[in-house]
Amino acid sequence: MNLWIRFMMLDIRLLARDKVFYYKLILLPIALIFILGTIFGPSSSSPTSNSGDTAYQVNLGMDNGMAIPIEWVMYEKQSVSPMQYEAAAMTVLFSFLTSFELAHSLVRDKLNNTLDRIRWAPTQILQYLVGKLLGITLAIVVQMTIVILCSWLLFRVSWGHIPAVLGVTFIYGLAIGSLVLCCGFLAKDHAAISSFAAPVLYGLGFLGGSFFNTDGFPLVLKKIQEWTPNGKAINAYLHIFQGDSLSTLVWDMMCLSVVAVLFFALALRLASKRKVG
Fold this sequence. Notes:
- With about 280 residues, this protein is mainly alpha-helical.
- The chain has one domain (about 5-45, about 80-270).
- About 70% of the residues lie in helices and about 5% in strands.
- The chain has helices at about 5-15, 20-40, 80-110, 115-120, 120-155, 160-185, 190-210, 220-225, 230-240, 245-270; strands at about 50-60, 65-75.
- It has a two-stranded antiparallel sheet with strand order 1-2.
- Helix 2 crosses helix 5 (about 120-155), helix 3 packs antiparallel against helix 9 and helix 5 runs antiparallel to helix 10.
- The longest helix has about 35 residues, at about 120-155.
- It is globular and about 55 Å long.
């Protein structure tokens, strides 16, 4: 079996045996979706409006006193209910916790000198990173998919085009997984991982729109939200909810892919430069 597959499956097995995965990373976001979606508005089971054509009519005045009615037909997007927004926001937010749970395995490999032994062979360190990244990504995708499915079954949240949702979820998982890889290599011990998790979770959670709808943000914060990885993911889900064109999603997914590549390259550099203790 290839090394990257072994590293990937090891992390998946560790997470599957952890009760935290089920209670904190699945049940808690589902509960928050229900609570926040109920507080901020009606559930998505009764949508406020549907997409369709809306007609607007005005009278064009003429010199002789006649009036000619002119009608414009404008396309109206599907509205996003509070329950839909909270489903997307909480699904994205709790993916951070999933990834940081797996980041502890990186610290263990550093502390028991497993990484020191691997790094001597360039192909092995690359396979190690690929395996870790895919393990984190797969865990994120599984966790987010379960929350998405539960929000649909329990609260009737309509997610729209499912292949597009899964595509965004996978690429977002790669972006967050690459970011957490960097945090894992920068951390000296398990306590340091927790210190990294708090600012990333709450900082990006706030700026990305997981805690508050960004419609009320100042212009500067809105621009920042558009370029955070979790903000990009939330915006992509909202585009799917609204029935936007595929080209809009492609841009969001390309931006997430660039984030994944940049952080993975940084993680590779950090892993290759690690000194033997």
